[in-house]
Design brief:
It is a single chain. By secondary structure, the protein is of the alpha/beta class. The chain is built from 16 helices and eight strands. Helix 13 runs parallel beside helix 15.
Length: 397
């Protein structure tokens, strides 16, 4: 099965720029697609210095819904929005004052990758931060969701008036240009070693990310401390010293419980959309009986059903479910500016624009407009967009 590769390099223009992110793209683009992906064939999508968060979201969503393995090579800088203190990938127009509206929220990456088969997705990052974001990440490490591999490094701000180079990602690209892709854990270690030759301070300074949820948790021997101890992240330990062990014969353990998300993903990838929707609906009813209306477990399965409707091409159903998710979250007391509430309304808005039946779109338009009044979101002019489109639909009557 062919793989998918997303090459994303993003950094602000002007004084806010901390890293020359786009400089790595020519090196990565020179690597053969099959080597970038680790599959026989691969589709490569390149996104250099994007201007709009929605453009990044569209490319990421398309990559996340493609069948087969997905590898994301992401180079750029992170900044916190001043209101919610959430990390964002800074884009070309991002400034410290506008990051909430012009940056790409990091949690959107987790949201888009959450339905993929565990172990089929890898994110390789080379990120720089300002001082405030650096301190935040020391306490709240970056994550990309369960089942997704994460390798790379996060660097603190460069000296004043300096623009850093993405030495880690350039090392990754240089190694891959040899035509051989080692296992990601080995590639990561080789890139760290190579980049430390150009930047000797990196080994002592950077936050190193090495998360493989498909492997059992490993510990680093006390005599070999990690480069930069951060809760939740492990440095790859040196090869273990063989120790004689006594092996006892025991009955095999019971098989692990089936993963409903993996079953649903397999059904979607096989085109069995009705089966996937039935599985998710069954889980939602079980959660409803166990936890009651509005519980997080119930809302989760509502969101899964909304995504499944999108995958099946049923924009109307997806829009209806996302509207319901937003209503449930608001009724539970979540703030209109909460990321999960904004995401629900944004996705309802996106799916509403894809409804081909004008009558059905007119039916849902007022509900979406009412939600947009309460949840304007980060995209400026979103309410105006709903009202204009609704006016056009009503003119067709």
């Amino acid at each position: 099965m062919p793989g998918t590769v997303l090459l994303l390099a993003a950094s602000p223009t002007g004084k806010s720029c901390l890293v020359d992110a786009a400089s790595v793209l020519p090196i990565l683009a020179a690597v053969a697609p099959d080597v970038l992906s680790g599959t026989d064939t691969a589709n490569v999508v390149e996104l250099a210095d994007p201007l709009e968060p929605q453009a990044v979201l569209t490319r990421l969503r398309a990559a996340a819904t493609a069948p087969g393995p997905l590898t994301v090579f992401l180079t750029g800088q992170l900044q916190l929005d001043r209101r919610q203190r959430l990390p964002h990938l800074a884009l070309a127009r991002t400034t410290p004052a506008t990051v909430r509206y012009t940056g790409f929220p990091w949690h959107w990456i987790r949201e888009e990758l959450r339905l993929r088969t565990p172990g089929s997705t890898a994110v390789v990052v080379d990120l720089h931060t300002d001082a405030e974001t650096w301190q935040h990440l020391a306490v709240q490490p970056l994550t990309v969701g369960p089942g997704t591999l994460l390798y790379g490094r996060v660097a603190p701000p460069p000296p004043r008036r300096a623009v850093a180079a993405p030495t880690y990602m350039k090392s990754v690209a240089t190694i891959l240009r040899s035509g051989h892709r080692p296992p990601l854990a080995h590639l990561h270690q080789q890139a760290l070693t190579r980049s430390s030759g150009e930047d000797p301070e990196a080994a002592r300074r950077d936050i190193v990310l090495a998360v493989d949820p498909t492997q059992p948790m490993q510990t680093t021997p006390p005599a070999q401390p990690p480069m930069h101890p951060v809760p939740g992240f492990q440095q790859a330990p040196p090869p273990p010293v063989p120790v004689p062990v006594r092996v006892s014969v025991a009955p095999p353990p019971p098989p692990p419980p089936s993963d409903p998300h993996a079953e649903i993903t397999a059904a979607v990838e096989s085109g069995r959309h009705a089966e996937a929707a039935e599985l998710a609906g069954r889980r939602e009813q079980e959660a409803l009986r166990a936890h009651g209306p509005g519980a997080d477990e119930v809302v989760h399965w509502m969101e899964v059903r909304a995504d499944l409707a999108m995958f099946a091409g049923d924009a109307e159903l997806s829009c209806r479910i996302w509207l319901a998710v937003a209503d449930v979250r608001l009724a539970a007391g979540q703030e209109p500016g909460a990321p999960a509430v904004e995401a629900a309304v944004d996705r309802a808005h996106h799916q509403w624009g894809r409804i081909g039946d004008s009558e059905r779109a007119r039916e849902l338009g007022p509900a979406l407009a009412d939600l947009r009044l309460r949840v304007p979101g980060r995209r400026q002019g979103a309410l105006d967009d709903v009202q204009r489109h609704l006016s056009r639909l009503q003119a067709q009557v």
